[in-house]
Amino acid sequence: MAANQSGVDSFQLFPSANDNKAQLGFSFLDDSPEKPPIPLPPPCLEVLLSQVSSSVKPTLEPVNLDGLTLLKGRVSTHEVFALSNSDLVPGKYEGGLKLWEGSLDLVKSLQSEVESGNLSLIGKKVLEIGCGHGLPGIFSCLQGASAVHFQDFNSEVLQCLTIPNVVANIPVKSQSLAADAKSWDTDAEVRFFAGDWSEVHQILPNLQTDDLDSNCSPGSTVSVGYDIILMAETVYSISALPALYELIKKCMSHPHGVVYMAAKKYYFGVGGGSRRFVSLVEKDGVMVASLIAEVGGGSSNVREVWKLQFK
């Protein structure tokens, strides 16, 4: 995948002419009759701060977002997964080491929402789905969220990139990396979870209800779930959209939870896109979707930011 001048990776379905066919991340598009089966997803687990990779050290680079400067790391798929120039390998690697354009679009939209008074992150519980670099979640920490949980398909992405990025932008209180979720120099509870969208809800702490007070009176409500869910460039695969939507419904606090989603309008060649996902949401009839930002780039590469809320 080629990076633009700002170091942000754009979506590339096919490799360049110099790439070997075996390097193609989208192996499921191969017409060969001997396609290997997609492997089972890795187990769901929490990645502790102390489990940051000691062998892979990302190169830190500044990213300027309308006056806000965040640091982001750069590591290669070869260093972490021994893959060469692969965007995606289904069941093994889902693109978390790339800094996708939608991630920056999402941070800018969150900034705009906060500045216009449409959003306050202070005291909110935030989940970033498919976090990769984690810049939207990091922004939430800096804006006073009470809890920010980062989720990615690959634990290696969290260990080699997400945690170093969070440390670079929100340093830990002590020099030694501790396992305590409250070790950050922020009031937010910062935690990291790896796993497939169809299963990861089982380990997310804000969804666990076993420890709720059993003496709650009938009809009383207890806030379970996340106030704000963030996701960027997660809707590229048609086959993954149902699991992603079900995860959102399980994780979103009712009735006031909100989802901010940044994505391309269409992902040509794989069939996904923001409009395909919004269509799924509207057909279900549980939530309402509103377009809050559109980023130009030609009719074939329009990027959008959507807001989803319960009806």
State the main characteristics.
single chain, disordered N terminus, two-stranded antiparallel sheet, alpha/beta, 8-stranded mixed beta sheet, Rossmann fold, 311 residues
Q: Roughly what is the average pLDDT, rounded to an integer?
A: 82
Q: Tell me the fraction of residues in β-strands, as a range.
A: 15-25%
Which structural class best describes the helix and strand composition? alpha/beta
Q: In the CATH classification, which architecture applies?
A: 3-Layer(aba) Sandwich
Order of helices and strands: EEEHHEHEHEEHEHEE
Main sheet summary: 8 strands, mixed
Tell me, briefly, the overall form: globular
According to DSSP, the number of beta strands is 10
Number of helices: 6
- The CATH class: Alpha Beta
Total domains, how many? 1
Can you tell me about this structure?
The chain is an alpha/beta fold and 311 residues long. The chain has one domain (24-207, 224-310): Rossmann fold (3-Layer(aba) Sandwich), CATH 3.40.50.150. Helices cover 21% and strands 20% of the residues. The protein has six helices and ten strands.
Ordered list of secondary-structure elements with their pairings:
Layout: E1 45-47, E2 59-65, E3 68-74, H1 77-81, H2 101-115, E4 125-129, H3 135-142, E5 147-152, H4 155-169, E6 189-194, E7 228-232, H5 241-251, E8 258-264, H6 274-284, E9 287-295, E10 303-310
Parallel strand pairs: 4-5, 4-7, 5-6, 7-8
Antiparallel strand pairs: 1-6, 2-3, 8-10, 9-10
